[in-house]
Design brief:
Largest sheet: none
Oligomer: single chain
Number of helices: 12
Structural class: mainly alpha
Number of strands: 0
Distance between the termini: 48 Å
Order of helices and strands: HHHHHHHHHHHH
Strand content: under 5%
Radius of gyration: 20 Å
Shape: globular
Length: 273
């Protein structure tokens, strides 16, 4: 399993954040595109399993296969760079700026959305025989997910927005823990096990993941879901992105960095004379 100590893998997190900031725009977008596409396929797979078995927990158990695939291939999700890129800034790495962090986030967002939307179009064609028939069972479920997780929040006003934001926070607390999991082992099996656990938890508890939603909601709209693009943007994507940013950075990135890199001085005990 080749487990690394926290002081070792947190340093790897900072190194990874620095590398992502200085990566070319071309490579950043390509890697983000593939990450969004693979995660979208995993989401479609999990919904299909839920429909076929009637047990959502089975879909949650199997969903992490997509996350593991994309990180083993070196691709990037917005939820991951929300955590890693700022660490290089906090560590004062040479040449790392706020602008560089924001550039990285923006490029990854664009790439993730393009990849997820590509799969949304392909799966919508698949669910409807090229938009010639009503959606099949899986497509219908996805359409209802889109309605429930936009209009369902909107009907509660501020309380709905707060709930949505907190689901985004808790989502990336777990998802970013999965990102870290890819760094705590040097073996494939160790990485997969460490990634699998928190990703399964987030999906089973129906938290809000900005990139998964880049697939679910556009595909629902393409198949005639009863909500609008503005409903999706205002009552899901924007609050989810902000929640993902806050949760991953506060509960994973900064906590690990502050206690394993910027460690506080040890206590000294004065011995009695």
């Amino acid at each position: 399993m080749a487990y690394l100590l926290p002081s070792e893998f947190v340093t790897k997190m900072v190194d990874a954040g620095e590398a992502k900031i200085f990566m070319s725009a071309r490579d950043t977008v390509i890697r983000a595109y593939m990450a969004g596409a693979i995660l979208a396929l995993a989401a479609a797979f999990a919904v299909m399993v839920n429909v076929q078995t009637g047990y959502p927990i089975i879909g949650a158990i199997l969903f992490p296969v997509g996350f593991c695939m994309l990180y083993l291939l070196g691709f990037d999700l917005l939820t991951g760079v929300f955590v890693l890129s700022p660490l290089a800034l906090f560590d004062r790495r040479p040449g790392v700026t706020v602008g560089g962090v924001l550039r990285n986030w923006g490029l990854v967002f664009v790439g993730n959305f393009a990849g997820a939307f590509t799969v949304a179009v392909m799966m919508s064609v698949y669910y409807t025989y090229g938009f010639q028939t009503p959606p099949d069972k899986v497509g219908t479920v996805i359409s209802h997910i889109g309605e429930a997780r936009t209009l369902g929040y909107a009907q509660y006003g501020f309380a709905g927005m707060l709930t949505l934001f907190l689901r985004g926070v808790m989502c990336n607390w777990m998802v970013s823990t999965g990102v870290v999991g890819a760094m705590i082992s040097t073996s494939v099996s160790g990485k997969v096990i460490a990634m699998w656990m928190p990703i399964m938890l987030f999906f089973a508890m129906v938290f809000e993941h900005s990139v998964v939603n880049m697939f679910l909601f556009p595909s629902a709209l393409l198949m005639g879901g009863g909500f609008s693009i503005m409903d999706y943007i205002i009552w899901n994507e924007i609050p989810t992105v902000l929640g993902n940013l806050a949760g991953g950075l506060a509960f994973t990135g900064l906590t690990l960095y502050s206690t394993h890199v910027r460690t506080a001085p040890k206590r000294t005990i004065k011995l009695a004379a």
